[in-house]
Amino acid sequence: MHDHRPVLLVVAHGSRDPRHAATVHALVERVRSLRPGVRVETGFLDFAAPSVPRMLERLASDGVREVVAAPLLLTRAYHAKWDIPGVLRGAPAGMRVRQADVLGPSPLLLTALERRLYEAGLAPSRKRSTGLVLASAGSSDPEAIAVIAEMARELRHTGWCAVRPAFASAALPRTEDAVRELRASGVGRVAVAPCVIAPGRLPDRIEAGARAAGADVLAGVLGPCGELARLLVTRYDEALVAGPAALSA
C-alpha cells in the first residue's frame, strides 16, 4: 500500500539499446525497496515505453494529483533544462508536477565509481599508483562539462595519482586520448571509469576507446547500484522540501 505522498516519477532518457531500459527498471526497483510507501514509476523521453506523457496520463487516470519528476541524469544539460520541463508542462490538468534536481554532483557518485573500479579488479591498494580516466557521455553544455571536470578534481583528492576527464561525444578528449595522455605522462597503470548510468551506444564507445588504448582496468557502468537509488530518493525528498515551484498545476 502506498501512502499519500507524491508519486516519484523517474524520467530516463531512453535508448534503442534494450540494455538501457532493463537497467533503468532494475534501478527503479531498488528505489521502490527504499521507499515502500511511495509509488515509484518510470517514464522515458524517447525510444522506450512508457513515454513520460503516457505515464502522466496513466497516473492522472489513477487519481494522482502530485508528482515529483526525478531526472535520471548525472548533469544539468539540455535534457534537464529544456526537454524534461517542456514535457512536464504538458501534464494533465489538475496535476501538480515538480522537477527534482539531477543526480550529480554528489559524493555518492564518486563512491559508486570507485566501487565499480574495485569490482572490475583494481586492488584498492593500487589506487595511489593508478591514473584514472573519468569518461562521461559528453555534452555541448558548459555546465555539464564543468560538473565532470569537478568530479575529476574531487577524485584526484581521494588519492589517485592522476585523473583526467574524457567524453564519448560533443567534447574532447576522447577516452582513448586521455588514456594515452596519462601513459605519456609516465603513469604506469591506467583505469577507466565510465560516468554513465546504463549501457548504450556512448558507453560502448567509451569501452571501445579504453580497450583500443590498452587501459589496464575498465569499470562497468554505474547501473542499478545502491548509490544511485539513494540519490534518487534524496532528490525526491529535496524537491518536497523545496516547496511550491511547480511546472504544472
CATH topology of the largest domain: Rossmann fold
Count the strands? 8
Task: Identify the strand order in the major beta sheet.
Answer: 2-1-3-4
Gap between N and C termini: 26 Å
Overall, the morphology is elongated
Mean pLDDT: 94
In percent terms, what proportion of residues is strand?
Answer: 15-25%
CATH class of the largest domain: Alpha Beta
Category by helix and strand content: alpha/beta
Task: Please give the share of residues in helix.
Answer: 40-55%
Number of domain units:
2
Largest sheet: 4 strands, parallel
Low-confidence stretches: none
CATH-level-2 architecture of the largest domain: 3-Layer(aba) Sandwich
Order of helices and strands: EHEHEHEHEHEHEHEH
Q: Compute the CA-based radius of gyration.
A: 19 Å
Number of helical stretches of at least 4 residues: 8
Explain the overall architecture.
With 249 residues, this protein is α/β, with parallel strands linked by helices. The chain folds into 2 domains: 7-104 and 225-242, 3-Layer(aba) Sandwich (Rossmann fold), CATH 3.40.50.1400; 107-218, Rossmann fold, CATH 3.40.50.1400. The protein has 8 helices and 8 strands, in the order E-H-E-H-E-H-E-H-E-H-E-H-E-H-E-H. Strand 5, helix 5 and strand 6 (162-167) form a beta-alpha-beta unit. The longest helix is centred in the first third of the chain and has 17 residues, at 18-34.
